[in-house]
Design brief:
about 260 residues; alpha+beta; 9-stranded mixed β-sheet; 4-stranded mixed β-sheet; 13 strands; about 20% helix; about 30% strand
Length: about 260
């Protein structure tokens, strides 16, 4: 579970009696001590990004060489990938790269100039998942601090399963890039390597205009792509790596929830 980890220590009978008598107060004191020992990773300045993802000011030229231009983000092109977009109202707010049996959703947001938001966002995501009955671990992975979650999902037979998902994020100059890894890339490190490289090589184009923190950086379709709703086939869709719509990706690996 995401959150504080309680310490284990030996205690005698007297200590046990005191814990029983103290009840909630004893547990609260232990929780408080643990919370004080663990550094709080919120409201910190953005960490260095020696391996990306990149701001548009950090790459040569216009950054589009070898990348798909979605306006607010430039996504590396990879052989065999499919690119899907997510629409909110009339705006495109996220892109998902599907590669074989794995996928990563990319979404960029505005952020304060001197303060990262990934630590705070992680806490909010973890809280939301645990409130739904899911499980979350906060770990330091190849892309920095991330969440590895089992998100409750309904199964076709009416039971409840859990989709395995990784939430990764990086704070940049006045922006924040979040990635959601699903499919085999969420459970198999060997399958995740290429998705992690795509995340690192993504370029964020925030723009100079004023934006409120957490506002999504709006995307656009590439010039050579068409919006195709999910379930609609076109003659040349098999030759295109672009498809769009609001449909969900196929569910990733699942496990039956044990209660």
């Amino acid at each position: 579970m995401f959150g504080r980890r309680k310490k284990k220590g030996a205690s005698g009978d007297g200590d046990e009696a005191e814990q029983v008598a103290g009840g909630i107060a004893t547990e609260d004191a232990a929780d408080t001590a643990d919370a004080e020992e663990q550094p709080r990773r919120v409201n910190l300045p953005p960490a260095p990004r020696p391996d990306g993802p990149w701001d548009i000011s950090e790459v040569p030229g216009d950054g589009t060489e070898g990348r798909v231009d979605l306006g607010g983000i430039l996504v590396p092109g990879v052989e065999g990938m499919e690119l899907r977009v997510e629409v909110a109202g009339d705006a495109i707010v996220a892109a998902t790269v599907v590669l074989h049996d794995s996928a990563i959703q990319l979404q960029a947001f505005a952020a304060p100039k001197k303060e990262g938001i990934w630590g705070e966002v992680r806490e909010e995501i973890a809280s939301g998942i645990t409130q739904q009955g899911g499980l979350v671990d906060e770990v330091e992975g190849p892309l920095g601090w991330e969440l590895r979650a089992q998100v409750p999902v309904p199964l076709p037979d009416g039971q409840t399963g859990a989709q395995l998902v990784r939430f990764v994020g990086v704070d940049g100059p006045r922006w924040f890039l979040r990635g959601v890894v699903s499919g085999q890339g969420a459970v198999n490190p060997e399958k995740a390597g290429l998705l992690e490289s795509i995340f690192r090589e993504t370029v964020v184009v925030r723009g100079e205009g004023p934006m409120a923190p957490r506002d999504p950086i709006v995307l656009k379709l590439p010039n050579d792509a068409q919006m195709v709703p999910d379930g609609v086939q076109t003659e040349d869709q098999g030759n295109s790596r672009f498809s769009g719509g609001m449909g969900q990706l196929e569910r990733g690996p699942e496990i039956t929830e044990v209660r």
